[in-house]
Amino acid sequence: MTAVLKKIVIFMEMIKFSHTVFALPFALAGALLAIRGLPSGRQLLFIILAMVGARTAAMAMNRLIDAEIDARNPRTAGRAIPAGRLSKGAVFGAILLSVALLLWSAAMLNPLCLKLSPIALFFLVLYSYCKRFTALAHLVLGLCLAAAPIGAWAALRGSIELPAIVLGLLVLFWVAGFDILYALQDLEYDRSVGLHSIPVALGVGGSLWLARLFHLLTLTLLLWLIFLLGLGIWFQVGSGLMAAMLLYEHWLLRGGDLTRLDAAFFTMNGYISLTFLAATAADVFWGR
User: Fold this and answer.
1) How many CB atoms lie within 10 A of CB 194?
2) Which H, E and C letters describe the chain, residue by residue?
3) Which residue in 18, 23, 49, 259 has the most C-beta neighbors within 10 A?
């Protein structure tokens, strides 16, 4: 039993389970905005389970598919599969269980969610292969995480409407922007082995400017969402805080200084997603 628990801990660390904080708050916010109120406990449970299943499957697939690449990269050679701490078979089994959890949870929500699940899975698999042939992997990752609030909206309304699409695009450009910044640390390695990324294509300076553009689009879409849904002062204040955190994130990396990447990537983006959820909840419950 101790050995099994150790393997579970290693697996959770491998898939960066703690980073669910990046996407789950947007899924919950999408649910709150869809009905401008609190979903039932059953709905929340299956939205969370679908989110956990999708993200676990996506991260485990990425680690499995990239195992050989990770083994050759000094930064990632210590990951669980290349380091021999988890077998490929065990990880594949976890992927199957996670996909089953996603499909079951989607089916328990409504028929539309179940029909959309294979599309989500397709893009989750596609992302892991993108770096082999296109620099647009960052946008595909953004699309994968954008499915979280769109899926939550569809789960509660049985349809996908313009505000859900705007919310999804907001998440897409936010994620693509910070993923470009994260990819800067592998620029030299990716270039040396022929992998594709925005940093490889544009260099450090061009990547920083494109990330800024994507985050400017994020803030523009945030304003559009406020207009579409008539969101009030709580959400507007939260949006201002998110804008300030995005500016601070880029200030930390000014001049291509990657020594503060962990603070910019992990800390600030975690705060941004939680602020979005808190601002949404405050507006839904106290803004009227």
Assistant:
1) 9
2) CHHHHHHHHHHHHHCCHHHHHHCHHHHHHHHHHHHCCCCCHHHHHHHHHHHHHHHHHHHHHHHHHCHHHHHHCCCCCCCCCCCCCCCHHHHHHHHHHHHHHHHHHHHHHCHHHHHHHHHHHHHHHHHHHHCCCCCCHHHHHHHHHHHHHHHHHHHHHCCCCHHHHHHHHHHHHHHHHHHHHHHHHHHHHHHHHCCCCHHHHHHHHHHHHHHHHHHHHHHHHHHHHHHHHCCCHHHHHHHHHHHHHHHHHHHHCHHHCHHHHHHHHHHHHHHHHHHHHHHHHHHHHHCC
3) 23
pLDDT of 238 reads 95
pLDDT digits (tens, 9 = 90+) for 72-107: 888 888 888 998 888 999 999 999 999 999 999 999
Using one digit for the tens of pLDDT, what is the confidence trace for 114-163? 999 999 999 999 998 999 999 999 999 999 999 999 999 999 999 999 99
CA-wise closest residue to 16 among 269, 260, 256: 269
Q: CA–CA separation, 226 vs 220, rounded Å? A: 10
What residue ranges define each of the domains in the chain, with the CATH number in brackets?
A: 21-30+39-286 (1.10.357.140)
* pTM of this structure: 0.91
CA 7/CA 248 separation, integer angstroms: 37
